[in-house]
Amino acid sequence: MSRVEEEVVEVSPALMAHNAFDSPRLALRGRIVTMAEDVIDDGILYIEDGVIAAVQEADAAAPDGFDGVEAIENDGNLYPGMVGLHN
Predict the structure, then answer these.
(1) Exposed, middle or buried, 32 (CB in 10 Å: 0-12/13-18/19+)?
(2) pTM for this one?
(3) Quick one: which of 17, 41, 56, 70 has the most CB atoms within 10 Å?
(4) How many helices (H) and strands (E) does the chain have?
(5) What is the four-CA torsion angle of 48, 27, 70, 86, rounded to 10 degrees?
């Protein structure tokens, strides 16, 4: 029989209260590969309340409500609709 050791990790109350469906607007910039296998080499993925609001070329105007939201640079590929647990 094996024994599993548990590690206790302190998590801030603010992080515990975070809800993806009530999060701030996000803009992620990088190479975007869509589920239709289209590739946007320099694109921005816009997320609002845990839902993809838009996927478009980086030089296109930001969607309504995203003015002033600074894009976060991603050094890898973005696959909208898929969870990237390693990022």
Answers:
(1) buried
(2) 0.70
(3) 56
(4) 1, 4
(5) 120
